[in-house]
């Protein structure tokens, strides 16, 4: 590296030299006394070296400039991803709002592909989670993601929340949505083999895209810190959905390929006085039992009452014309919000599944005594 030597005002350095017999005088540079015993002065011009490259201050300034560019670029990329999250979340919100409206009004969806099979899927028991319409849950989730995306873009999070916490909530939300979509894709492939649902596929595409966009915000070291939490969230989603569908008895899935004409099942047990009195009381208070002719639990429920008492119950058959693929329940059952069979509606209460007679008596306020027996 080339260097320059710059001279400044001279400085003097005193030297001690051994006695010399010869006097010597160097013009302008070194001055010895003629009879000197030592060197009086050594004129040494101080030198200041500088390289041809940038100075230390310039290098520091350049490093700061280089460093300052990286966060700016990273922030710009983050804002772009947040905007994408807001946009995709908005699309999902519109889709699920439309499906929620159809679900609440019991209307048929317009299916560009899939035809009737698309409607069968949207109207199946898998479209409800613990009595809550699945599109309604999706509408809330997409709305949350869209709102968070906009607020992270503007750096204006509510409740004094920091950006790191906002990113974590966004990641957890999109992770739960992607986990739910993966579960429903499994259901679509196993329970509805050969069927097509454009709305389901679109929702899955949006969910996975949102998840990967938010995951892109995290570096490898950050992912290692939050991976445990995200696995717990995904597992919780799987367990919740599985629990919801295991407690109900899906209609359009277990009977998807069957064509069942309506039939009646004979009740073989004999009613006792308690069952007869309870059946009369249930009818008098307007209690209804909703069921399906092919439902074994409905038959078992009637067997507990016995042949005579079962005839006194206000029983509503949800498939009076038989069942085949695409058959819907009658309006009375749809309005009641059937989640599974049998289902009891007693004094504003809903009891799902097969019930003991004592539980029905307690729910209806029935007390067995001699007067009720002879009534």
UniProtKB/TrEMBL annotation:
<dbReference type="InterPro" id="IPR044698">
    <property type="entry name" value="VKOR/LTO1"/>
</dbReference>
<feature type="transmembrane region" description="Helical">
    <location>
        <begin position="126"/>
        <end position="148"/>
    </location>
</feature>
<dbReference type="GO" id="GO:0016491">
    <property type="term" value="F:oxidoreductase activity"/>
</dbReference>
<feature type="region of interest" description="Disordered">
    <location>
        <begin position="47"/>
        <end position="75"/>
    </location>
</feature>
<keyword id="KW-0676">Redox-active center</keyword>
<keyword id="KW-0472">Membrane</keyword>
<dbReference type="Pfam" id="PF07884">
    <property type="entry name" value="VKOR"/>
</dbReference>
<feature type="domain" description="Vitamin K epoxide reductase">
    <location>
        <begin position="78"/>
        <end position="218"/>
    </location>
</feature>
<dbReference type="GO" id="GO:0016020">
    <property type="term" value="C:membrane"/>
</dbReference>
<keyword id="KW-0560">Oxidoreductase</keyword>
<feature type="transmembrane region" description="Helical">
    <location>
        <begin position="227"/>
        <end position="245"/>
    </location>
</feature>
<keyword id="KW-1133">Transmembrane helix</keyword>
<protein>
    <recommendedName>
        <fullName>Vitamin K epoxide reductase domain-containing protein</fullName>
    </recommendedName>
</protein>
<dbReference type="InterPro" id="IPR012932">
    <property type="entry name" value="VKOR"/>
</dbReference>
<feature type="transmembrane region" description="Helical">
    <location>
        <begin position="192"/>
        <end position="215"/>
    </location>
</feature>
<keyword id="KW-0874">Quinone</keyword>
<keyword id="KW-1015">Disulfide bond</keyword>
<feature type="compositionally biased region" description="Low complexity">
    <location>
        <begin position="65"/>
        <end position="75"/>
    </location>
</feature>
<feature type="transmembrane region" description="Helical">
    <location>
        <begin position="168"/>
        <end position="186"/>
    </location>
</feature>
<dbReference type="InterPro" id="IPR038354">
    <property type="entry name" value="VKOR_sf"/>
</dbReference>
<comment type="similarity">
    <text>Belongs to the VKOR family.</text>
</comment>
<dbReference type="GO" id="GO:0048038">
    <property type="term" value="F:quinone binding"/>
</dbReference>
<dbReference type="InterPro" id="IPR036249">
    <property type="entry name" value="Thioredoxin-like_sf"/>
</dbReference>
<keyword id="KW-0812">Transmembrane</keyword>
């Amino acid at each position: 590296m080339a260097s320059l030597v710059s001279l400044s005002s001279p400085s003097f350095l005193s030297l001690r030299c051994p006695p010399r017999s010869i006097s010597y005088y160097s013009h302008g540079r070194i001055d010895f006394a003629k009879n000197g015993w030592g060197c009086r002065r050594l004129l040494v011009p101080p030198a200041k070296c500088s390289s041809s490259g940038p100075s230390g201050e310039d290098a520091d300034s350049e490093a700061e400039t280089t460093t300052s560019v990286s966060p700016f670029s990273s922030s710009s990329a983050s804002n772009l991803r947040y905007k994408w999250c807001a946009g995709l979340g908005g699309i999902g919100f519109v889709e699920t709002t439309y499906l929620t409206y159809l679900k609440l009004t019991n209307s048929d969806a317009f299916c560009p592909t899939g035809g009737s099979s698309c409607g069968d899927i949207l109207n199946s028991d898998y479209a409800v989670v613990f009595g809550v319409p699945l599109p309604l849950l999706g509408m809330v989730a997409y709305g949350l993601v869209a709102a968070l995306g906009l607020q992270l873009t503007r750096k204006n999070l509510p409740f004094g929340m920091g950006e790191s916490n906002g990113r974590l909530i966004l990641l957890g939300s999109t992770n739960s949505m992607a986990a739910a979509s993966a579960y429903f894709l499994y259901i679509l492939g196993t329970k509805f083999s050969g069927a097509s649902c454009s709305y389901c596929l679109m929702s899955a595409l949006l969910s996975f895209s949102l998840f990967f966009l938010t995951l892109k915000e995290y570096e490898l070291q950050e992912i290692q810190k939050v991976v445990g939490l995200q696995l717990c969230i995904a597992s919780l989603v799987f367990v919740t959905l599985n629990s919801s569908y295991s407690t109900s008895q899906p209609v359009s899935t277990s009977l998807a390929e069957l064509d069942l004409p309506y039939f009646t099942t004979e009740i073989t047990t004999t009613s006792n006085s308690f069952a007869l009195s309870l059946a009369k009381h249930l009818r008098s208070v307007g209690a209804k039992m909703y069921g399906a002719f092919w439902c074994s639990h409905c038959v078992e429920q009637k067997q507990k009452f016995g042949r005579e008492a079962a005839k006194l119950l206000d029983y509503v058959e949800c498939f009076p014309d038989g069942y085949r693929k695409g058959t819907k329940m009658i309006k009375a059952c749809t309005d009641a919000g059937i989640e599974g069979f049998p289902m009891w509606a007693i004094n504003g209460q809903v009891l799902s599944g097969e019930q003991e007679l004592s539980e029905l008596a307690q729910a209806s306020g029935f007390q067995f005594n001699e007067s009720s027996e002879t009534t």
